[in-house]
Amino acid sequence: MIHPLPDIMLEPLVRAGLLEDLGRAGDLTTDAVIVDGDAPVSAVLAARQDGVIAGLDMARLSFALMDPRIVFEPHVRDGQAVTRGARLATVRGPARGILSGERVGLNFLSHLSGIATATARLVELVRPYRASITCTRKTMPGLRAIQKYAVRAGGGSNHRFGLDDAILIKDNHIAFAGGITPAVQRARQAAGHLVRIELEVDTLAQLREGLETGDVDVFLLDNMPPDVLREAVRIVDGRAVTEASGGITPQTVTAVAQAGVDLISLGWLTHTVRVMDIGLDYQP
């Protein structure tokens, strides 16, 4: 079971989406075509492909904000795998509100379910190994909380949520600081007792230098092929968490996991994943 995000976090995103869609004059099509907008109708949210669901509360809010009289009855839960044709929820209430809220609700639900579906596929591919699938900060502006929620719905875990979660020393930090050792030493001096330090390394030589500082909690092994990853894991020997990242795909993720890393992070899970095909079908 995945714990849902509270409505107070979701409503501003849904409200902004509806305001964007309604523009300056509202829903011209519905207002022109539907004679009695208050007439009660029923519709079904249905999966048009197999996948894992995430974002049902976003869909619910898209209808509720248009008209609080609309009843949203979910038939599945976030994190649940469904097959093509599955009924995800029934929506009942005034026709105008349902039609005007449909697209925004589907946009959120399809996008987040696409993330959950892609994550679940990767989680299944690495299940025999120790590696966990995690996302990155490569999220769409304003959508980080819900995109990372969708990763959790798919069985993955979350990397840091922002710059204030943890210290992640990357190549540019190293360059500006004058090297790995001074960068790590300054980070340790500044970090609170609950703040972990992660160091991005491109080579085994950098990895060894980072280990020598004794202050690195996690090593981000960037764009290393599986044989180098395997050697990196051997060198670390349990003294820190190992995270593989960079250019990993469903076709290569198993080989990366076989190298013995603890984490596999993938930015494309949130920035370019395909949506899940979900539709709203009128129910006579």
Q: Which tags fit this structure?
A:
single chain; Aldehyde Oxidoreductase, domain 3; 2 domains; 43% helix; alpha/beta; TIM Barrel; six-stranded parallel β-sheet; 284 residues
Description:
The chain has helices at 7-22, 28-33, 56-66, 95-125, 144-153, 171-177, 180-190, 204-213, 226-236, 253-258, 268-271, and strands at residues 40-47, 51-52, 71-74, 81-82, 87-94, 132-134, 167-169, 197-201, 218-222, 241-245, 263-265, 278-282. Strand 9, helix 9 and strand 10 form a beta-alpha-beta unit. Helix 1 packs across helix 3 (56-66) and helix 4 packs across helix 5 (144-153). The strands form 3 sheets. Strands 6-11-10-9-8-7 form a 6-stranded parallel beta sheet. It has 284 residues and is of the alpha/beta class. The chain folds into 2 domains: 7-115 and 273-282, Aldehyde Oxidoreductase, domain 3 (Alpha-Beta Complex); 124-271, TIM Barrel (Alpha-Beta Barrel), CATH 3.20.20. One of its GO terms (biological process) is quinolinate catabolic process. Involved in the catabolism of quinolinic acid (QA). Hexamer formed by 3 homodimers. Pathway: Cofactor biosynthesis; NAD(+) biosynthesis; nicotinate D-ribonucleotide from quinolinate: step 1/1.
